[in-house]
């Protein structure tokens, strides 16, 4: 599991009230852009960066990081999280843009655009219920972005994004453990199974957020995962 961290520049931390927040993302009812399968979604997160010259303010969108790609899934739950320093007197805006990842390129400009959500950190906090903000996915192309690959889409419902935001607390607790299993079902035709374990949080609004995933154990019905750690 990876975590992207960002510290908003140009602020005097000694005089600013601040908090570190962590953001996790999941989606539902994403449109299918592929003909014979569902989309392979990945979310790129951008943060608005402002610069000041005399009385002029210039703003551009800087890539903060991205989730992992999840293959063939209209309701992805992403593991990658994002941590940013949130200063209460600033208006920090974020854009969450979903792409259907086609081919081997990880460049977002070369993949198919699905939709986006734009929210300030303060809006996410204020509009969240049980730390989760439910947002409808906008399918128009966001302004000031180099997005050209936009396809017709088949909708099975209202596409939504669920953004879980909560304050990061400094906890000395680390969980270290091992997991093993035996007599798993044989799922492969010419081999055994390739098992892995996913642990998720189920929120009160039925949104799901992945918090932990083990490595895949290849070709075994009796897997063992040793020295796992959760902070």
Report on this structure:
The protein is mainly beta. It folds into two domains: 3-167, Immunoglobulin-like; 175-230, no CATH class. 3% of the residues lie in helices and 44% in strands. The protein has a five-stranded mixed sheet with strand order 1-5-2-9-8, covered by helices on one side. A hairpin with a 5-residue loop joins strand 11 and strand 12. The radius of gyration is 20 Å and the shape is globular. Residues 10-15 have low confidence and may be disordered.
What's the helix and strand layout?
Elements: E1 3-7, E2 18-28, E3 41-53, E4 56-66, E5 81-87, E6 93-100, E7 112-120, H1 121-127, E8 132-136, E9 160-167, E10 175-180, E11 198-202, E12 208-213, E13 224-230
Parallel strand pairs: 1-5
Antiparallel strand pairs: 2-5, 2-9, 3-4, 3-6, 6-7, 8-9, 10-13, 11-12
Tertiary shape: globular
Helicity range:
under 10%
- Give, in order, the helices and strands: EEEEEEEHEEEEEE
Summed over residues and divided by their number, the pLDDT gives a mean of 82
Strand share of the residues? 35-45%
CATH superfamily of the largest domain: C2 domain
**What structural class do you assign from the helix and strand content?**
mainly beta
User: In angstroms, what separates the terminal alpha carbons?
Assistant: 11 Å
Can you tell me the number of structural domains?
Answer: 2
With strands numbered from the N-terminus, the spatial order across the biggest sheet is: 1-5-2-9-8
The assigned CATH architecture of the largest domain is: Sandwich
């Amino acid at each position: 599991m990876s975590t992207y961290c960002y510290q908003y520049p140009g602020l005097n931390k000694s005089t600013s009230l601040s908090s570190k927040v962590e953001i996790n993302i999941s989606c539902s009812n994403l449109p299918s852009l592929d003909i014979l399968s569902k989309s392979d979604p990945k979310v790129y997160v951008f943060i608005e960066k402002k610069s000041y010259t005399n009385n002029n303010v210039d703003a551009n969108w800087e890539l903060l990081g991205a989730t992992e790609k999840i293959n063939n899934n209209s309701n992805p739950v992403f593991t990658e999280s994002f941590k940013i320093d949130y200063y209460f007197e600033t208006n920090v805006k974020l854009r969450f843009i979903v792409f259907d990842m086609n081919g081997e390129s990880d460049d977002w400009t070369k993949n198919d655009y699905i939709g986006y959500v734009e929210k300030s950190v303060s809006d996410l906090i204020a509009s969240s219920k049980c730390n989760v903000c439910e947002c409808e996915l906008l399918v128009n192309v966001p302004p000031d972005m180099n997005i050209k690959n936009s396809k017709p889409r088949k909708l099975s419902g209202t596409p939504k994004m669920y953004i879980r935001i909560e304050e990061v607390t400094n906890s000395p607790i680390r969980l270290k453990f091992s997991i093993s299993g035996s007599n798993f079902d044989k799922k492969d035709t010419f081999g055994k199974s390739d098992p892995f374990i996913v642990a998720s949080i189920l929120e009160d609004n039925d949104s799901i957020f992945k918090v932990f995933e083990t490595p895949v154990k290849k070709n075994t019905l009796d897997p063992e995962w040793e020295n796992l750690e959760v902070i």
